């Protein structure tokens, strides 16, 4: 010990296992497992893309009930809102199902 410094002691305990990359584990999967894995990843990405559309639907829903709009404009807005909400909800259901 020079100058009063203490020697560093390595952490005692079991050695850490070597990490594995997520794609390396796929070499052990068969064709069906790979298909399910890639289908799940793709559907997760698509479901994430549908999520911002929910905010657009909420904004359009608020705009439909503008006090200055006529009854025909509100009817048309509600009709469009129902169509868009149905499409987005159906897309979320399909992509979230897997």
Query: So what's the overall shape?
Result: elongated
Element string (H = helix, E = strand): HH
Segments where pLDDT lies below 50 for 5+ residues? Answer: none
Portion of residues in helices? Answer: 55-70%
Intertermini distance: 62 Å
- Gyration radius, rounded: 27 Å
* Total of DSSP H or I helical runs spanning 4+ residues: 2
Structural class: mainly alpha
Reported for the largest beta sheet, the result is:
none
β-strand number: 0
Question: Which band does the percent of strand residues land in?
Answer: under 5%
Look at the structure and give the mean pLDDT. Answer: 82
Would you write up a description of this structure?
- This protein has helices spanning 31-64, 71-97.
- It has 98 residues and is mainly α.
- It has a domain at 52-98.
- Helix 1 (31-64) packs antiparallel against helix 2.
- The N and C termini lie far apart (62 Å).
């Amino acid at each position: 010990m020079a100058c009063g410094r203490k020697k560093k002691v390595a952490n005692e305990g079991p050695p850490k296992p070597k990490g594995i990359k997520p794609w390396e584990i796929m070499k052990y999967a068969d064709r069906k497992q790979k298909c399910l894995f890639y289908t799940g990843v793709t559907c997760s990405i698509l479901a994430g893309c549908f999520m911002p559309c929910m905010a657009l639907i909420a904004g359009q829903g608020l705009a439909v009930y503008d006090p200055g709009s006529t009854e025909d404009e509100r009817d048309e807005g509600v009709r469009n809102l129902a169509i868009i909400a149905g499409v987005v909800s159906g897309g979320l259901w399909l992509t979230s199902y897997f």
